[in-house]
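Sample entry (383 residues):
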Amino acid sequence: MKVLHLGKFDGDVGGIERHLRALLGGMPPEIEVVNLVANAHAFTDEHRDNGYTTVRVANHGSLASVALAPAMPSVARRLHRQHRFDIVHLHFPDPLGHLTTLTLPRSVRRVISWHSDIVKQQWALAFYAPFLRPFVQSADALIGATPQHFSTSTQIPQAHEQQLREVIPYGIDGAGFASSDESRLERKQLLLERGSRGLIFTVGRHVYYKGFDTLIRAMQTIDGDLWIGGRGPLTNSLKQLAIDMGVAHKVRFLGFIPDQLLPAYYEACDVFCMPSVERAEQFGLVQLEAMACGKPVVTTRLGTGVEFVTLDGVTGLLVPPKDVDALASALRRLLDDNELRTCMGSAGKQRVEQVFSLEQMIRKTVDVYHRVLASTPAVRHAG
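Predicted structure, serialized as tokens:
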């Protein structure tokens, strides 16, 4: 079986990119995978790593979060002539992937992973929606990471009888995420640096929907420290906010943290916080990572798959988005109660093992591929 993934971007910062790396790297040997993405530079290249090939197409910027990579369709056709793909697997929202798929023969079966509705670019959605709905209906299978991906979406059209719809939670290798020797050395150093004060850790791209500004404001009433990992377009403004709020002395910006060192930061903290404020946050892979390390999670009630990951009062605490006081109260509650932190951390680790295993995610995805190839093709009115 040969599968072309349209993975949008290649990298190690975004949750979807990390999800794809785990999924594609775990594919059984009988499935040949090529990941076609937009490059970070204005040239096309490719590399092979983790058992699969990634082809990066020349990219000249972005518009409405869509890569300006006009060669993507022609590169996809060239790859198809070379490999003769059975399936193209898209990761939505991705208008460029949509366009690229339309240039491939319709004999190539279509699988879409629906990661999120289009939330921010509403002006673009007004033009794109008439093309989006029929294309999604034309897919042979639609995958969502949680039941909420289907039940709360305003952009997924009604299913037809030939289309397979499947909930496949994102998965991580809990055992593999445990500390390496390098991470254990880093953890030892971090424990020395943090001292005896309570420590909150958060990590992610510094973009509008992550809500890091709300968390920084909440630190005004918290007797503890906050470490923020990651980087992005809002990094400098977040640093200035910490100064303006008078909490710069207890907020530390860590910058990019390599994957192999992330467990050290989760293990060194007392509480993990994901303070997202918009529905663009559909899941939050970092929650799984914190839970795999036995840490309780404080996050927000967005009406998305976030609540499917963190169970309120069981593996962590949920608060309304953008509510500084509620966020601060939940964090203080956990920082002040060691027994509660231990109980929720243990429950979270167990939940990862039972519901969010990497093996389960890979097995269910491969099963979708086999069922699609064995089924009657879906409706073809979208090209």
